[in-house]
Design brief:
The structure holds two protein chains of two kinds.
Chain A lengths: L1 H12 L7 H13 L3 H26 L5 H7 L5 H29 L3 H6 L2
Helix pairs in contact in A: 1-2, 1-3, 2-5, 3-5, 4-5
Chain B lengths: L1 H20 L8 H5 L19 E6 L6 E6 L4 E4 L3 H28 L3 H4 L4 H9 L2 H13 L2 H19 L8 H6 L8 H16 L4 H19 L55 E7 L10 E9 L1 E2 L4 E7 L2 E7 L8 E4 L2 E7 L5 E5 L9 E4 L2 E4 L1 E7 L7 E7 L5 E3 L10 E5 L7 H10 L3 H8 L7 E7 L4 E6 L14 E2 L18 E3 L5 E4 L21 H12 L5 H8 L5 H15 L5 H12 L9 H22 L11 H10 L17 H20 L8 H5 L4 E2 L28 E3 L2 E5 L5 E5 L17 H6 L3 E2 L13 E9 L1
Parallel strand pairs in B: 1-28, 3-7, 6-23, 11-20
Antiparallel strand pairs in B: 2-3, 2-28, 4-5, 4-22, 5-24, 5-25, 7-8, 8-9, 9-10, 10-18, 11-17, 12-13, 14-15, 16-17, 18-19, 19-21, 25-26, 26-27
Helix pairs in contact in B: 3-7, 3-9, 6-9, 11-12, 15-16, 15-19, 16-17, 17-19
Classes of the chains: A mainly alpha, B alpha+beta.
Chain lengths: 119, 814
């Protein structure tokens, strides 16, 4: 559930807001929806990672890599696709930790047993 | 426990976001930079689509509709209904392709690089502030804004650039802004002037005065007169043909003062303190052949300006069409109008004039606060200009620049160098309205228009070559030249002696010029403007003569020429220097014992056709050898760590090698033995072979000239290697007509056949776009490397059909 919500919200909001909405969105969504820390971290990471990887890959292909391949060499990477992987990892990690933080904050105010009984 | 977990994860998140939102030294803020939504991914571009695509732009300050057609190499053809709209659209479109380049180059001129690059560029900024580039730009702007034509152009161009900047979201910023972490700032009319100051600094911003003074002090007048003559002694082919009659009565020259040097000067200058010696490669070729030499029955004109080859390309091709103009050519990003180009009736081009228009004056202050300086036996007040240099990540630096009537004081005794305190008198400070020259040339219809256009021009002085379809050709050594006594400014001048001041100007119409000379062609390659019969002093030395000699001998022999004949001349690789000196040198080498390898090399050189072809091994040997030889001859006497000096010219060196084999200068004074010309020539030959061996292994295919020369076209930042072009493999060389050296070369090649309709060809080593992520960034390089030209599409109307046209932009008033 959180995967889809993060993916859609992050995709939409990034067209208007600065890059750090990829932290804000998983933070709030996971605070709202997540059931445990691992899920919060993992789904946030994958949602934003897939989003960045997919969009970067699309832009790379559409422009025949003319910019992304050059930039990848500044970062000592072989090509634009590797660069897309690194970008996805960076974005994913930020989102993952933000999602985890959102869940943990919520969790701070919950009773312990609630979590154990559900699911 | 929960609290600890929550606290930790929040801290990690905030830490990550913070760390990725700021730059770390040269590393840009990685978060926004690698995000596909905001980062460099957004800067990739694709080819423009077919002619059916129409992009409509609604723009505020436009007066009427403007149509822009793009051709297949990305050149904009702008059609406007008034001049304001024309320059507005030029500003807009140029910014779209070259915004970061415009920002960087004007920042450099204004001494504002440190604002965005940090303390690394502080010294350079300080130097440019002291040289008064901003002061010169402001003086020029005042004049430009007082004339209706230039005022309209500056304001329109500025509005166009700013309209483009206004539309940009951070994700649209050119990638260099993203990498360096700053945002584009609004354009201002003064930046157009700063662009020009930057060009003036590049082309006319060096002085040999101190080096020459040191030589005069060390060796005396006799040696200076002998080794540093005021006109080439070995070979010259001046721009204005020898024997061209003067068509004016010259003004009397100012009388030379009794003392050439400041009386009490003790000149010892650390070499590092002064701007480096001019690089060979900052030069250019241009020529025009008369109708009787061409196959078309009309003149043909060619121009290739040589500058440091950088990316984005220095020049920007554009066609500007309005109610009173239809011109095609290259512009400088940041300056409205076309600088080198053609219209229906005329074509023109420029090469640099090596005039002495930067002089150093020793000045003495009356007090610690530098409020007065000594001149004409009295203390005169200085004026001051407060310069604030902002530095990224540091407190701003204040620099108070002191001005005398000569100009700003740029060097202080005891500061980095041990020379005197010196003010700079420089043409870059002289107010002028250069724009009017180009505005008028863009609209010129005949020779008189051309001559009239040139009267507005101040500097950097250029050889303006011209041809029209009424079958006139001409060339003018043009700029505002100070009226000097002979050799004034060859040495350091006395800032306190009024006889050392610049004494007025050479009248514009008396600048060297020639129209339709009997030989049927005009040409220039930065060599001596005139022979010694010209009454005024321009400089004691100008660029070496080899390119000019070669161009003139080929043009002399040329008949039934076409644009392609001139294109081939632009790519001529013949080495005149080698023809002049190599036979003499080989004679000396063959008289000493040689190893088998060395003998093989001599054989290679003897077989050489003097062509600096890309595959030539002999060219590599000679090009390595000659500078080694010059060092071997002169370094012991004319180079030292404590005293800035320079070598005698190449011309004087050749004269000595060929005609004065017993000259004392061949002896290396740093050794007890007495060396002869033979020792020096043979020794340098062996040393050059050793050097080549060290860098390129034993003689073989790796010694090919293209590989040894290794021409490199770098991105303006110099440090972003992936933005450079791939290695260039062509022939030529510094003293060759095809003047491609390691970092310099033909930055634009153009050939125009005049006629009822002009037919023109051109190319530069790069592309229209300054965006490394654009298919138009380097698309012209391959053709340039092969020496080919593109046909330039000269449209007659905005609705003309042509298979090479692609997309169309229509700008409409909002």
């Amino acid at each position: 559930m959180e995967f889809i919500v993060i993916l859609v919200l992050a995709a939409l909001l990034q067209f208007f807001l600065p890059w750090w909405v990829i932290a804000l969105v998983p933070f709030l969504v996971c605070m709202w929806l997540s059931k445990n820390g691992w899920r919060a971290f993992f789904f946030s990471l994958v949602a934003v990672g897939v989003l960045w990887l997919g969009y970067a890959w699309y832009l790379h292909n559409q422009t025949a890599g003319v910019m992304s391949d050059r930039i990848s060499r500044i970062f000592f990477l072989p090509n634009g696709l590797a660069m897309a992987g690194v970008a996805a990892l960076i974005g994913g990690l930020v989102a993952g930790f933000a999602g985890l933080a959102g869940f943990q904050l919520k969790n701070m105010f919950r009773k312990k047993d609630q979590l154990v009984y559900r699911r | 426990m929960k609290i600890v977990k929550a606290f930790l994860s929040v801290i990690i998140t905030i830490g990550l976001v913070y760390a990725l939102s700021r730059s770390w030294g040269p590393v840009p803020a990685l978060g926004p930079f690698v995000s596909p939504f905001t980062g460099f991914w957004q800067n990739g571009e694709t080819l423009r689509s077919d002619d059916s695509t129409v992009v409509e732009l609604k723009l505020d300050s436009l007066r009427e509709e403007v149509a822009i057609r793009f051709d297949d190499i990305g050149v904009p053809h702008i059609f406007a209904k008034n001049n304001y709209d024309l320059y507005y659209a030029q500003g807009y479109i140029t910014a779209k392709d070259r915004l970061w380049q415009m920002d960087l180059q004007t920042r450099a001129a204004a001494g504002r690089l440190s604002e965005v690059l940090g303390p690394a560029t502080l010294e350079m900024d300080r130097q440019n502030r002291r040289l008064g580039l901003g002061y010169g730009a402001e003086a020029n702007l005042k004049l430009a804004l007082s004339n209706p034509d230039s005022r309209e152009a500056m304001l329109a161009y500025t509005a166009g650039v700013n309209e483009y900047i206004r539309q940009l979201a951070p994700k649209d910023y050119p990638v260099e802004f993203k990498l360096l972490g700053y945002a584009p700032e609004p354009w201002e009319p003064v930046k157009c002037m700063l662009m020009l100051e930057q060009m003036t600094l590049t082309l006319a911003g060096r002085a040999d005065d101190l080096r020459m003074s040191n030589i005069l002090k060390t060796y005396g007048k006799q040696v200076v007169d002998d080794l540093f003559p005021n006109y080439p002694v070995f070979q010259e082919s001046p721009i204005i043909p020898e024997g061209t009659p003067l068509d004016f009565t010259p003004l009397p020259l100012p009388a030379p003062p009794r003392d050439v040097l400041p009386a009490d000067s003790t000149i010892i200058v650390d070499r590092s303190a002064l701007s480096e010696r001019p690089v060979e490669g900052l030069g250019s070729n241009n020529w025009a052949i008369a109708a009787e030499k061409s196959l078309t029955g009309y003149p043909i004109l060619a121009n290739d300006p040589h500058l440091e080859l950088t990316l984005p390309s220095i020049w920007y091709q554009v066609q500007l069409s309005g109610p009173d103009v239809n011109v095609y050519g290259v512009s400088l990003p940041g300056i409205p109008s076309v600088i080198i180009g053609f219209n229906k009736n005329v074509a023109w081009g420029v090469t640099n004039v090596d005039a002495d228009v930067m002089d150093l004056y020793e000045v003495r202050f009356g007090d610690e606060a530098r409020t007065s300086y000594w001149h004409d036996n009295q203390w005169k007040p200085t004026s001051k200009r407060e310069e604030l240099i902002r530095v990224k990540g540091q407190e701003p630096v204040r620099e108070e620049v002191v001005y005398t009537h000569h100009g700003p004081v740029a060097y202080y005794q005891g500061e980095k160098h041990h020379g005197p305190t010196m003010a700079v008198k420089w043409i870059g400070h002289e107010p002028g309205n250069n724009f009017l020259t180009f505005h008028a040339l863009n609209r010129a219809t005949n020779y008189d228009d051309y001559r009239q256009a040139l009267t507005h021009y101040v500097g950097p002085a250029q050889n303006f070559v011209f041809a029209d379809n009424s079958k006139n050709i001409g060339i003018t050594v043009n700029g505002k030249f100070p009226l000097k006594w002979k050799q004034q400014g060859k040495f350091l001048l006395d800032g306190g002696n009024p006889a050392h001041d610049w004494q007025g100007w050479i009248p514009m119409e008396q600048n060297p010029h020639v129209r339709n000379p009997a030989r049927g062609f005009v040409s220039s390659a930065n060599q001596s403007s005139v022979d010694p019969s010209y009454p005024y002093y321009i400089n004691w030395r100008q660029a070496p003569s080899e390119r000019g000699v070669r161009i003139n001998e080929r043009l002399q022999a040329m008949n039934g020429a076409t644009a392609d004949s001139l294109r081939m001349l632009q790519n001529d690789n013949f080495n005149v220097l080698a023809r002049n000196v190599l036979p003499t040198l080989l004679r000396y080498v063959k008289a000493v014992p040689l190893t088998a390898t060395q003998k093989a090399t001599v054989h290679t050189l003897e077989q050489w056709d003097y062509q600096n072809q890309p595959t030539s091994v002999a060219a590599s040997i000679f090009e390595e050898w000659y500078p080694t030889l010059a060092d071997a001859i002169w370094k012991d006497e004319f180079s030292s760590d404590s005293l800035g000096m320079r070598y005698p010219t190449r011309d004087r060196t050749l004269y000595m090698l060929i005609n004065q084999p017993d000259a004392r200068w061949f002896d290396n004074v740093r050794t007890p033995a007495r060396e002869t010309i033979q020792d020096v020539v043979a020794g340098s030959f062996k040393a050059a072979l050793d050097t080549l061996g060290i860098h390129h292994g034993p003689m073989g295919p790796k010694w090919q000239w293209a590989l040894v020369k290794d021409t490199e076209i770098r991105h303006l930042t110099r440090m972003l290697k992936p933005f450079n072009a791939l290695p260039v493999r062509n022939g030529g060389g510094g003293s060759i007509v095809n003047a491609t050296s390691k970092h310099h070369g033909p930055s634009w090649r153009m050939v125009v056949e005049l006629g009822p309709e002009p037919k023109a060809y051109g190319i530069y080593p790069g592309g229209q776009s300054g965006n490394p992520g654009s298919p138009y960034y380097l698309n012209l390089l391959e053709k340039w490397e092969k020496g080919e030209l593109n046909e330039l599409l000269y449209l007659q109307s905005p609705d003309q059909n042509h298979p090479r046209l692609t997309s169309r932009v229509v700008m409409k008033k909002n």
